[in-house]
Amino acid sequence: MKLGEQKQLDIKEGLKSGVPIVIGYIPIAMAFGILAKTEGVSLLDTMLFSVLVFAGASQFMALNLLAVGVGAGEIILATLLMNFRHFLMSASLAAKLEDQRKRWIPLAAFAITDETFSVAALRQGTLTLNYLLPMEYAAYGSWLGGTALGYLLGSALPELVKASMGVALYAMFTAILVPAVRKSKVVTILALGAGILNTVLSYSRIVTSGWSLILTILFVAAAGAWIFDGEEVERDE
What we know:
Blueprint: H1 3-38, H2 43-53, H3 56-67, H4 72-82, H5 85-96, H6 105-110, H7 114-121, H8 129-153, H9 159-166, H10 168-183, H11 185-204, H12 209-236
Helix pairs in contact: 1-3, 1-8, 2-8, 3-4, 4-12, 5-7, 10-11, 11-12
């Protein structure tokens, strides 16, 4: 197959692989736009959230923290910790990429999400930027479009529809968490522990809401690293 034909094939496959992600992102992004408008965030700032951050869980978390008056520094730190896994995902895909055109790699790294990483990591055969970039930026475009739609059209939607979209984030978390929980008791314990610890810290008011989340992330991440490292040592022995 000629180089040009292979490039076109990779682009088409990338766009095709991005379709399910696009379908899933639009309602969640719309929910974010609706909630941002409800919290009094301007359209410009709402769009900048999605344009610059492009991380659904972190954007919803930031809205919640803003609503309770958490400072910018705590929100930034919590977002960094929550998205730290993206460094690992980027490194993993960079090692797998057959196409190493360096000027495009930062664009590919920026648009990595849990969903696009999963699709790219499980792809059979070689991974190229011609495949990865169309898939990622189809998802990115749907996230931006969904955010704008939610903000602009949210007030016109029936209350039942808006309420149902409000649980979209929880559905996304559940879809990510449940398969891992079913495979590992350790993940179950860590997830329950995170929920309990954050609840205790929040209601005891020992620290602010922002710091309760940050401390929970740090503690559970450290506990998970220690437990899984111990499991690997036992397997080696």
